[in-house]
């Protein structure tokens, strides 16, 4: 079971000893039907499908607007941009920037001309914010604040602090030039504030949910500011958009959705572990976890998404994956080519006994670790799905983003849930507002205080 598409290759061979062809074809039928629902836009949540056409419909003017902000801030010698947002208003940009950045960008002497991007508003840690401000106060800073609703507490708290600092340091007028807001076209506190203060703004389309928004300004602006090529990213995504628009047994999104639902339904594989072998993809795992976790985990259903970065995590989670409770399957993100080359040298003494590897690329060792682990995990009862891209670059990342978004929609429809809402996210907020005594929550405050006193 190896099928090819233009840029994302899916290999289901690591599942073949676990499932039969007949079972797989039964789930392919379900996946084809779910694909049809997504394609024809007849399912629940179909008012949130704007992400489907972003790759082909994003206007060049939007990219130029992002580049104008980049050039304006460069002309002011801005060397630090604080990107404020949480969940879908944060993870896509972070994933792309971490994947495309030099591992040691911060430590390199020649840092290049692009500003450093740091993230805030994705937690409520006081220490984090205090330490962020230590950094901001040493640098020439600007800020992008992102909130589709414009009312989320975490980014609002961080923004209040960063805004106050920028206004105190640069004056209100210049601070307004150093702040860009990305929010709803019409509503929300951030929109009102932006209108009042005259911030430059970008719109989060109202038919695109947070976790599907990486190819809107939510992802594009921070990625442009970090110096990366969003045209290439959109063109990779567009290639996937074309490939996934075919209702075919070779459509990798349909295949992936079919196999993961089969493993979940029939084999009790309730956990999916996204595995990568490059530390730059750690945040791909974080982005993917939100995408699938928030889209599928509802109505008492869903595959729990987890992630590991190997070989690092083979020395922590490897034991459990090999030998613990057999609840999981793995989806490996296989990168075929390394962007850099390091060859292992020969040592006359060979005390470390590594001369058998002399002349080999380190990536060859990584590939053999990956293959050896895959086989060991199959032997240990863990089905293996493999998704390959040629290399880590903006083009392939764009394709991967679109592939996972589309596959997520198909998969959630097979599961029988609305992929595009997130009712469960509200529960903690209600309790937090009640505990913080937010005006309007008086009844909930009284109820929660009574509960805590019991
Ligand atoms: O995917 C989602 O919809 C969520 O994760 C949101 O992105 C997150 O809650 C942040 O919301 P907002 O952008 O409204 O601040």
Task: Characterize the structure shown.
The chain is of the alpha/beta class and 454 residues long. Strands 1-2-11-10-8-9 form a six-stranded mixed β-sheet, sandwiched between helices. A five-stranded parallel β-sheet has the order 4-3-5-6-7, with helices on both faces. It is built from 17 helices and eleven strands. The longest helix is centred in the last third of the chain and has 22 residues, at 394-415. The chain starts with a strand and ends with a helix. The chain has helices at residues 21-40, 54-57, 60-75, 91-100, 126-136, 153-170, 172-177, 189-197, 217-225, 230-244, 252-267, 282-296, 318-323, 362-379, 394-415, 426-435, 442-453; strands at residues 2-3, 9-11, 80-84, 116-120, 141-147, 179-183, 200-203, 271-276, 304-309, 328-335, 384-389. Bound molecules: 5-phosphoarabinonic acid. Residues 86-89, 147-149, 152, 155, 209-211, 294, 422, 425 line the site of 5-phosphoarabinonic acid.
